[in-house]
Design goal:
Elements (H helix, E strand, L loop, with lengths): L16 H5 L1 H19 L2 H4 L2 E9 L2 E9 L6 E7 L1 H5 L6 H5 L1
Antiparallel strand pairs: 1-2, 2-3
Length: 100
């Protein structure tokens, strides 16, 4: 990469931290989700899809991960659900809760 730096125009301005954490992050997410969804749904009629759930806690925040797998995508994180309200009323992140 350093060898190619000499080919960058003098007028080049690198993206700001706000661009990286904003529009570029959103654009990258959208591209990733489009590619993942396409691979997940490819031949889904033939192979089917597998739904999986996983409970986790990150920095004291209880979360539930929703994952799917298909014939061409072995693992796709579809959503992360905040389980704080469920846990606040005494619930647990068991198989019954994750399946609902």
């Amino acid at each position: 990469m350093i060898k190619n730096a000499r080919f960058v125009p003098v007028t080049y301005v690198p993206p700001s931290r706000k661009d990286i954490g904003g529009r570029l992050l959103i654009e990258n997410y959208n591209i990733h989700m489009t590619e993942t969804t396409s691979k997940l749904l490819q031949d889904a009629e033939l192979f089917g899809l597998t739904a999986m759930g996983d409970g986790t806690t990150i920095c004291k925040y209880p979360l539930t991960n929703v994952l799917f797998a298909g014939g061409h995508e072995h693992q796709a994180l579809i959503d992360v659900i905040d389980s704080s309200n469920h846990m606040a009323i005494g619930g647990v992140k068991d198989a019954r809760y994750i399946a609902s």
